[in-house]
Amino acid sequence: MVNHLTLAVAGSGKTRGIVDYCAAMPTDRRVLVLTYTQANQAELRGRLASRAGDHPEIEVMGWYTFLLRNFARPFLPFLFPGRRVLGFNFDGRPHRMAKGLHRFLDSSGAAYACELGRLANELIEASGGALIRRLQCIYKEVLIDEVQDLSSHDWEIIDALLHSTVDVHMVGDIRQAVLATNPRSSKNKRYAYADSIHWFREREAKGILEISESSETWRCRPEIAAFADTIFEASWGFPTTQSRNGTVTCHDGVFLVRPQDVDRYVDEFRPLCLRSSANSGKIFNLKYVNFRLAKGTQCKRVLIVPTQGIEKFIQRGTRLGPIPAASFYVAVTRAFQSVGVVLAEPGNSALPFWKPFGDVMSESNE
C-alpha cells in the first residue's frame, strides 16, 4: 500500500509532519507538495526552506497552480485545438448557459477558477492517458496538505492520481472542512466538506487508500479537546482526541459567559473574539475574526459569539449540520487554554459560567 491519508486533529502538527517527512527523504526524490490556501503555501515554503533546504527536488504549489501548470496549459489543445490558456480568473464565472471553450475561459483567455477542476478532469480523458503519464514522469510523490479543502471535480483528479504510479500522501482534518475550492458546484455534492470522509472510506474499502488517525493535540487543553469531540456525533467515527497540553493557568477549560460580562471577560483575558459571519455579534463592540478565517491560527484563549444553532447545541444537545459543526470545531480548537461562549441561559448544559472575580470567588454554573 502506497497511497495514504492521515486524518489529524487540530493542533496535532500536520504541517510539521509533512516538513519532517520531506526532510527525511532522499535529496534526489522529486516531490510535489500541494495545498489550497496561499497562507498555507507560504508556511510550507518557509518551514521546508528551514528544515529541508538541501532538498532541491521538493516543490510547493497551490492547487489552482497545479491544475493550470500540469493540466490546462499543456493539454487544452486536446479539447480545443489551437487555443491556449492566457491567464487565471479567480472571481469570475461563465454565463450559466455557456458551453464549449466559453465554459472554461473568459473573453481574454483566462481560465475560470470555478471551472478549472472540471476542465482538468475532462483533459485527463481527452489526452488519452498522456496527462497522467507526464505527471508520472515528473513526480515520484505528491503530498497534499489540508486535503479536506478540495471539492467537486477535484475528487475525480485525486482518483486518477490514486490509480497512477505516483505515490500519494494526503493529510487533513475532516472536522475542519470549512473551505472549498468550488463551493457552488453540484458535482460530488455528497462528498462536500466534512462528508468527504465518506469518499476516503470508500477508497479505503476498495484497497487503493490506507487511512490512519493522528489523535494527539499539542494545542488544546484536555477540557477543550473533550468538548470539541462532542461537536460531531459518534456516528462520524472520529477517534477521541488525546491532549498533550499540560499547562495550567488561572483560567483553563470551556466556559459560558453571560452577555453582561463580555466586556469584563475581554478586558481580563484578551481572547481572540470569533463569530460566524459579519452579521453576528453586532451587539458587542469587539474586534472579530470570522470562524472560517480563523482556520490555521492559534491563540491562548478565544471568545465565541454563537449562532442560534450553536446555542441550541449547547443548551439542548441539538446536532449541528456538517458545515456549521466544522465551523464551530475550528473556532473551539484555536485555543490552547480556554474557550468562552457567550450565552445568557445554559439550558441543559453542564458547562460552568464564568463570573468576574469581584462577584464570586469561583466559576460555576448557577
What does this entry look like structurally?
The strands form four sheets. The chain has a six-stranded parallel sheet with strand order 3-2-6-7-1-8, with helices on both faces. Strands 11-15-14-12-13 form a five-stranded parallel sheet, with helices on both faces. The chain has helices spanning 14-24, 38-51, 63-75, 101-104, 113-126, 130-138, 154-162, 196-205, 222-229, 262-269, 308-316, 322-332, and strands at residues 4-8, 31-35, 58-62, 87-89, 110-112, 141-144, 167-172, 210-214, 216-217, 242-243, 253-257, 272-275, 288-290, 299-305, 335-342. Helix 4 links the parallel strand 4 (87-89) and strand 5 (110-112). The chain is 33% helix and 18% strand. The protein folds into two domains: 4-214, P-loop containing nucleotide triphosphate hydrolases (Rossmann fold, 3-Layer(aba) Sandwich), CATH 3.40.50.300; 222-342, 3-Layer(aba) Sandwich (Rossmann fold). The mean pLDDT is 94. It has twelve helices and 15 strands. The chain is an alpha/beta fold and 366 residues long.
Structural class: alpha/beta
CATH architecture of the largest domain: 3-Layer(aba) Sandwich
Report how far apart the termini are.
55 Å
Provide the low-confidence segments as ranges: none
Count of domain modules: 2
- CATH fold-level topology of the largest domain: Rossmann fold
The named CATH superfamily of the largest domain: P-loop containing nucleotide triphosphate hydrolases
CATH top level assignment of the largest domain:
Alpha Beta
Largest sheet: 6 strands, parallel
Q: What's the mean pLDDT score?
A: 94
The oligomerization state is single chain
* Percent range of helical residues: 25-40%
| C-alpha-based Rg, rounded | 23 Å
Number of strands: 15
Strand order of the largest sheet: 3-2-6-7-1-8
How large is the share of residues in beta strands? 15-25%
H-E order: EHEHEHEHEHHEHEHEEHEEHEEEHHE
Number of helices: 12
Categorize the overall geometry.
globular
